[in-house]
Each structure stands twice: as C-alpha cells, then as structure tokens.
Amino acid sequence: MSGNKSALDLARLLGVAQDAVDIALNELWPARNQFVHGHPAHPKGDRDFVTEVDLRIQKRVHQYLNSTTPHIGFLGEESVTEAADPLQNDLVWTLDPIDGTSNFSHGLMLCSVSLALLHYGEPVVGITAAKSLDLRYHATKDGGAFRNGMPIRVSETTQLNSSLVSTGDYAVGQDASEKNWQRIALTTALIGKVERIRMFGAATLDLAFVAEGSTDACIMLSNKPWDTAAGVLLAREAGALVTDANGTAHSYSSTATIAAAPGISAELLALVRSAFAK
C-alpha cells in the first residue's frame, strides 16, 4: 500500500477495524458476568495487572488483523517487545484489548476496547467501544468523529471555572513517586480553577468524553499509543485542541496528552505549565 495518506482506503480500513472490535467485544461482553467480584489478574509490574481476557482479546484481534491486512504491522499493549515500530513502518495497528484493566478486574465495567491505525505514527482510523455503557466511537482522518453513528463535537465552553476536567491515573511502577509529584501538583492547581475533577481510569474514555463534549478537557501525563491514538483522533476530529504539555501539537513522540475544548485550551495549558514550574 502506498505511503501517501490520500491513497489509503480509510473507509475499507475502518470496516476492518469495526470487525476487529466486534471480535474483541464478543470476548469481553460475556466475561463481564463470569466473576461476581471481578476477574483474576496477574501482575506484570508494580500494581500493574493483566487478565486472561486481555490476552485472549489481543490474540484473537491480532489473528484477524493479520489475516485481513497482512501488510500492516501490529502493536498491542500486551506484546510491546514483539511489536512493530509505528515510526519505522508505513502502517501499524495499535490495540488496547481492555483499557481500564484495573476497573475490569474489580468488576467495574468502566472500560473499553480501543483500536487505531497509525500512518507513520499519526492516527488515521480510530475506534473506542465501551459496550457496558452502550457507547461506540469512531473517527477517520478528515472524516469527522461519531458516537453510535451520530456526529459529535467538543464543548463550546469558554470558562475554565465551569469546566469538567478529567486526569489520568497516578503512576505506578518504576519511578512512580517521582512521576507522581507532577500529578499531585497538577491536581492541586486544578482544584481551585475548574468546576470538578474526574479520574475515570481509562484513557481511551477520557479522550472520547472530551470528543463528545460531556467533559471539557482531559490531561494525561503519558502517551502510550494503545491508550491514546484512537482517542486523539476522535478528539481532533470533534474539534478539540490536542497538545503536549508545552502546548505543541500532540504527536507520537509527545510525553503528555492534553485534549481540550478550544475555548479553554490556552488557559488550561498555562495552568499546567505553572503547576510544573513550582
């Protein structure tokens, strides 16, 4: 397939992605009631877990994508060491089989399946599906953003003090304490400036909620492609400004992912920078 983005058949590739997400949901949805108090989780790091459902979804989606689009690389959260490099490959699928695994493993179905197609690191197709919430979002580059098939747009708010802002999880694993001082500083700065702060525990939903306008902004001090790629495309196509913490346009190489309604983006970014300067 040509490396020219205009030559990509995004409609066909969106159809492939929709089918792949259906496969994932067919694994995830029946599993929701398998355990009354959640799902057994296996540690893969400090307070970082994976369930058998994560692994099963990733395996089956990868098999399907490999059979239908064998020329496209694959990057899944649960097999990073064996993955294609999105910056070195024309096209790469990136999958989060269950975003919000901690929620899911405790029986809290605030979680989603998220799949994106990257073109040299830039998302051009994205789907986030949370069946427990009856929500399915999709977007294609320059094709708009949709929830359950209907077009969506970001909030029109211009007032930070009447805005609902979500943040990413606090860090776990190596250097968590060092990383969390920034998150604590950010939370402290937001408390007196926004209407409410929310933490959903699923980055893909943070970005989707901004895209549909139910929240006004989200701030994540991380940028893992399986977490952010589909949501970044959704938010952009819905009219959000998506940036790094320093205000530059968000990219695969960004260290943070901030999506906001245009009317509050500048004020929010100034607040983030001031929080980190203290």
UniProtKB/TrEMBL annotation:
Q: What is this enzyme's catalytic activity, as reactions?
A: a myo-inositol phosphate + H2O = myo-inositol + phosphate
Q: Which InterPro entries match?
A: Inositol_monoP_metal-BS, Inositol_monophosphatase-like, Inositol_monophosphatase_CS
What PANTHER family is this protein classified in? INOSITOL MONOPHOSPHATASE, INOSITOL-1-MONOPHOSPHATASE-RELATED
Enzyme Commission number: 3.1.3.25
- How is this protein named in the record? inositol-phosphate phosphatase
Listed GO biological process terms: inositol metabolic process; phosphatidylinositol phosphate biosynthetic process; signal transduction
Q: Which Gene3D superfamilies match?
A: 3.40.190.80, Fructose-1,6-Bisphosphatase, subunit A, domain 1
Q: Can you name the source organism?
A: Segniliparus rotundus (strain ATCC BAA-972 / CDC 1076 / CIP 108378 / DSM 44985 / JCM 13578)
Is the keyword Ion transport assigned to this protein?
Answer: no
